[in-house]
Amino acid sequence: MLSVPHFLFMISALASTDLVAMVPARLVRNNAALCVVEPPVEVPGYEMAMLWHERSHRDPAHQWLRAHVADSV
């Protein structure tokens, strides 16, 4: 078993081991050193959320940024 703090570290670690991992497909699509296959079972997705401090809730610049981030995902 291998534990890493972020998916990106996992990608480089996998290339030099015989381990397998489940990572977001977009991270490995263009990596010729790895073999990418669909999982044999359905894997539930995950929910994305934005969090911010209450004092930033009404800040126009913060509202603008949150709106653009929400539109981009």
UniProtKB/TrEMBL annotation:
Q: Which domain of life is it from?
A: Bacteria
Q: Which InterPro entries match?
A: LysR-type_TF, LysR_subst-bd
Sorted alphabetically, the Gene Ontology BP terms of this entry are: regulation of DNA-templated transcription
Please tell me whether the keyword DNA-binding is annotated for this protein.
yes
Q: Name one GO molecular function term.
A: DNA binding
Q: Cite the entry's keywords alphabetically.
A: DNA-binding, Transcription, Transcription regulation
Indicate whether Transcription regulation appears among the record's keywords: yes
Occurrences of domain LysR substrate-binding (ranges) = 2-71
- Which PANTHER family does the record match to this protein? HTH-TYPE TRANSCRIPTIONAL REGULATOR LEUO-RELATED, TRANSCRIPTIONAL REGULATORY PROTEIN
Q: Which family does it belong to?
A: Belongs to the LysR transcriptional regulatory family.
Q: State the name under which the record lists this protein.
A: LysR substrate-binding domain-containing protein
What is the species listed in this Swiss-Prot or TrEMBL entry? Paraburkholderia rhynchosiae
